[in-house]
Specification:
Layout (H helix, E strand, L loop, with lengths): L7 E3 L2 H9 L7 E3 L19 E5 L8 H14 L4 E5 L5 H11 L5 E5 L3 H10 L2 E3 L15 H9 L3 E4 L4 H4 L6 E4 L4 H12 L2 H18 L2 H19 L1
Parallel strand pairs: 1-2, 3-4, 3-6, 4-5, 6-7, 7-8
């Protein structure tokens, strides 16, 4: 593949490193991260609901059960806390069972697969976006999660993990909070911090929006791809 490819695209610094380790020629490797659609920039969160939002497939690499376990500690201290989980996948039934076991069915709502407008509405009213990404048992991992880019562009603080391309996007203590993979206690502590300090949530969210606007443009991403394709075609002529 490396021999035949004109260019190879990496969408995270971790992916870039791994491709080099696999033997990808450095002069063929391009770091080019996608950006969120423009609709997300227009959102101004009102932070008026005491809820966290998680959006994504219920799969190993997104570890939704860890998000639930972290939120459980928040719900123990704040019975009015809510966690909205959108998406579908192989672990959905297990996560619903976990919520029942923990006794927090009134605090956690599974809304299934939602459309873009539904996502925009949830982003506008939530306190923070949460996602405990990790390397799955089969080695599967994230690139740079689009949902995190979208949520940060929308102006929500992000609580996630030091995994794959997430630290490329989210700056710890500046645009959100990052913990190590499997650190449920750390994630819970940061969720509590956001829940109990609305001003902090707004400050982190605003800085996140500014960072995504400056560094993660969908126009720049597509423009880079177009230039690479055109250059590759010219080189073959």
């Amino acid at each position: 593949m490396f021999e035949k490819s004109a260019k190879v695209i990496a969408v995270s610094k971790v992916m870039e490193t791994k491709l080099l380790e696999l033997g990808c020629p450095k002069d063929k490797l391009i770091y080019n991260v996608y950006g969120p659609q423009k609709e997300f920039e227009s959102i101004t969160p009102n932070f008026n609901k005491k809820q966290f939002l998680a959006v994504g497939r219920f799969t190993d690499k997104k570890a939704p059960y860890y998000t639930i376990l972290a939120f459980n500690e928040v719900a123990k201290k704040h019975t009015d806390a809510r966690l909205i989980m959108a998406g579908d996948g192989a672990l959905l039934s297990s996560c619903k069972n976990l919520v029942r076991y923990l006794g927090i069915t009134n605090n956690v709502k599974f809304v299934g697969v939602i459309d873009k407008q539904g996502l925009l509405n949830l982003l506008k009213e939530s306190l923070a976006f949460v996602q405990h990404s990790l390397v799955g048992g089969n080695g599967d991992m994230e690139g740079t999660p689009v949902a995190i880019l979208e949520a940060s562009m929308a102006g929500l603080p992000i609580i996630s993990t030091n995994h794959a391309g997430i630290p490329d996007v989210i700056i710890h203590n500046e645009t959100g909070f990052l913990v190590d993979e499997h650190d449920v206690e750390g994630m819970s502590n940061y969720m509590l911090k956001i829940f109990e300090d609305n001003t902090l949530a707004q400050q982190l969210g605003q800085k996140g929006k500014e960072r995504i606007k400056e560094y993660f443009s969908i126009e720049d991403y597509i423009g880079t791809l177009n230039n690479l394709v055109n250059q590759s075609i010219e080189d073959e002529i």
